[in-house]
Amino acid sequence: MIESWRWYGAYDNIQLGEIAQTGAEGIVTALHEIPYGEVWTRELIASRRKQIEDAGFTWVMAESLPVHERIKRGDGDLSSMFANYRQSLANLAAEGVGAVCYNFMPLLDWTRTDLNAPVQGGGTCLRFDAVRMAAFEIYMLEREDAVDDYPAEVLPRAAAWFKSSTEASRTALLNAIMSGLPGAFDRYDIDGLREALKFYDDLTEDDLRENCKRFLVEVVPAAEKLGIRLCVHPDDPPRDILGMPRIVSNAEDIAWIMCAVDSQSNGLTLCAGSLGADPANDVQAIARQFADRIHFAHLRNVATERDGSFEEAQHLAGDTDMVNLIGTILDEENRRRTEGRLDWQIVMRPDHGHELLSDAKRCNPPGYPMIGRLRGLAELRGVICALESKDHTLR
Ligand code: DNO
Q: Where does ligand 1 bind, in terms of residues with CB under 6 Å?
């Protein structure tokens, strides 16, 4: 696997020189400063690439080249939006960046309710708490129908949380929910979010699928010609959020997308933590089923709870058997190698990490601390080395 590290460029206070000490060879980054929908110019890509290469790394993955909300909503004439996306792909390909991650989550990206949940032994993690999310939707956002989206046991607890909440805890909750949007983004207050949600009022799951297919039909053939591997990121969490549909949440969803345009350039980001947040998802089985389309692995673990809450666990703890999952990815790499492919290696990164030791002082983007991820990468690397040195037939 190609060990990589997500770096936010000018938005990151971790320097490339520090990342060099992690042992990662690849950098995963995006031109976060460019508003969604605009072209990533060749000049800007080239200068970012130079910065990365001067520090001794390779830019192995663009994460993300965002899909504009108008495309997700299927708003009217989108030809210039698609043309811009294809142009950005062409510019990336011209600068040697051959893989691009994107998501198709309407409005929000990953969603958590707590950015600093304490973990045993010290440090903090990101947490999604069903009770707080329900309190947010029902009492703060006052979204009609939100009560229908939660198990009955959660509702009285949500009411109790709201009743005893302070202004500060409600602000922290809103801030946590808005934190998933990276880079050049819109963040909303309650009124703004209500307004923004109106644009999704009538959007059904079928509409979103149609819009996704339209996007894929427009961009995958171009990606194929350019030799670019697109890889869709699963929904995080893998369920409908704020009344908006989500369509990349489980094996059936992924199968639909992979078939919508049948091409190696229409691939998957295997985000173990996102998929693992739904206990109904067998992450291992999903990895096996779509192995030949996995172009990127986000290795992360979650511990789920009965009421729909989950917490980000250490990389080798939590509900997913990470050792087996890594075994599956290594098997796929072997398969590709046996086929004689030169591009047999799969890019991986330690996805998220706990805030440990001095991390809290550095104000990194939520989920992306230095030491927590360094620990994650070191543990994952240990597993990879151990499995690689074993006879694969033993697995
Ligand atoms: C969270 C990330 C996501 C991911 C995008 C890809 O930490 O995994 O923000 O980058 O969803 O488009």
A: 63-64, 101-103, 109-110, 180, 182, 233, 271, 298, 351-352, 367
Question: Three-state SS for 126?
Answer: strand
344: exposed, middle or buried (Cβ count in 10 Å: 0-12, 13-18, 19+): middle
Task: Quote the ligand 1 centre to 234 CA distance (angstroms).
Answer: 9
Q: In a 10 Å sphere around its CB, with 0-12 CB exposed, 13-18 middle and 19+ buried, how is residue 34 labelled?
A: middle
Task: Indicate the angle between helix axes 322-338 and 370-388, nearest 10 degrees.
Answer: 60
Separation in Å, CA 295 to CA 79, 315, 330, 365: 27, 20, 12, 24
pLDDT at position 184: 43
Report the mean per-residue pLDDT for the chain.
95
What distance in angstroms lies between residue 236's CA and the mean position of ligand 1's atoms? 8
Pocket mutation for ligand 1, best pick of 101, 126, 233, 351 (most atoms within 8 Å of C-beta) = 233
Per-residue model confidence as pLDDT tens digits over 241-273: 999 999 999 999 999 999 999 999 999 999 999
Task: Tell me the per-residue pLDDT of 332-355, one tens digit each, with 9 for 90 and over.
Answer: 999 999 999 999 999 999 999 999
* Domains, the chain: 2-108+203-394 (3.20.20.150), 114-198 (no CATH)
- Closest Cα to residue 262, out of 209, 224, 226? 224
